[in-house]
Amino acid sequence: MTGPRPPVVQNSGQVMGAGHEPANLGDILERVLDRGIVIAGDIRVSLLDIELLTLKLRLVIASVDTARQIGIDWWEHDPWLSSRARPPVEPGPRDPEEVEAERRPRVERVAARRDIDEYDR
Amino acid sequence: MSTTADVGPVATARPDTGAWLHGVVRELPPDTLAELVGMDGAEVRAVRSGGLVAVVSAAPLTEYGEEPLRRKLSDLTWLESAARTHHGVVAALSRTGAVVPARLATVHRDTDRVAAVLAERRAELTAALDRLTGRTEWGVKGYVVPGALPAEADDEPAGGGGAGAAYLRRRRAQLTAKEQGQRITAETAATVHEALAQYAVADRRHAPQDRRLSGAATAMVLNGAYLVDVAALDGFTELVRALAGRHPQVRLELTGPWPPYSFVAEAPAQEAHTVRDPASW
């Protein structure tokens, strides 16, 4: 053993020599955004924004290429991340439950405004 | 540069200063820095203080001040390249010896401030470097193997009540099978993690990656990080192989060696054992 080498174990314990292929972007992002020593820098963009960013990355991206292909640009519209936030023109890929949760109060508001409460019964 | 940077606005700093911290090491072999490429192609520099070396990229505040940095971080393309560049420097350092990696986007106004941080946290950094010497981080991820889960209840159950009731019964049976499968794979993940943790010097169990981030076809049930003595690596690899053979209901994937990203902070109390929403399965 001369030093660490990167084997990759897959399925039934089969070890594949992985060589020096570039590490998976998701793994890298997870490590550099979530971990590592926290030293308060002078430039305070980091914590809130980055934690939120990580969260969103976890939820949204499959890979950066895919993200680009499907036009993920939520940060442009996100009040947490962007001071020039504006409402999205059209919703990006979303968690269906979240979409539904957001839709429901809106539907109820509309219903109330139109005074058609009896429709629910 | 005096220490007015503490209170003064950005404009009081020279516009061409600023330092992006990659990590802290005890010493740097000659020529290490010359081979490294820093943030956005910048030069990589060493900042020495109290027997420690901070490795930084030149990061002009016109580019890495609060506003510009916020803008950059919001750009997924830049974020990807920044993550890879930062990781590239940290990984290169870890190949020369122990390194304490800094979290992404740790930016100081100038190298004097970096030196001050080295001095302030010298004891903590030195202890971390001692702990990490001769060890590397390995990741073991476990994924559900679909065939190993109990089959979903597809049969039409007997009983009246019409299509609606039948649907509800079917749905309940499916959910029960799903819960059972989740319980079995969760237990397997815990067993695998405990076995690896016993072998490793230190361990962390991180929250499983969302499938959209992992890119895997099935749900991740284990996202473990293990600090392993370099001398014990063969044994660790062998253990992963044995565990994979013993537990066919999870597919194990070993990645590494990683710089010890997971082992430089105090263990967050149980934070990693986040309970995942079953809906994400």
Automatic annotation (TrEMBL), chain A:
It holds the Pfam family Gas_vesicle. InterPro entries: Gas-vesicle_GvpA-like, GvpA, GvpA-like_CS. Keywords: Gas vesicle. GO terms for cellular component: gas vesicle; vesicle membrane. It is found in: Gas vesicle. Residues 81-106 are annotated as: Disordered. Its main location: other. The keyword Cell membrane does not apply. It comes from the Bacteria. Residues 92-106 have a biased composition (Basic and acidic residues). One of its GO terms (molecular function) is structural molecule activity. Belongs to the gas vesicle GvpA family. This is Gas vesicle protein. The lineage of its organism: Bacteria, Bacillati, Actinomycetota, Actinomycetes, Micromonosporales.
From TrEMBL, chain B:
PANTHER family: PROTEIN GVPL 2. It comes from Micromonospora mirobrigensis. The lineage of its organism: Bacteria, Bacillati, Actinomycetota, Actinomycetes, Micromonosporales. The keyword DNA-binding does not apply. Coiled coil: none annotated. Belongs to the gas vesicle GvpF/GvpL family. GO terms for biological process: gas vesicle organization. Its main location: other. Keywords: Gas vesicle. One of its GO terms (cellular component) is gas vesicle. It is found in: Gas vesicle. This is Gas vesicle synthesis protein GvpL/GvpF.
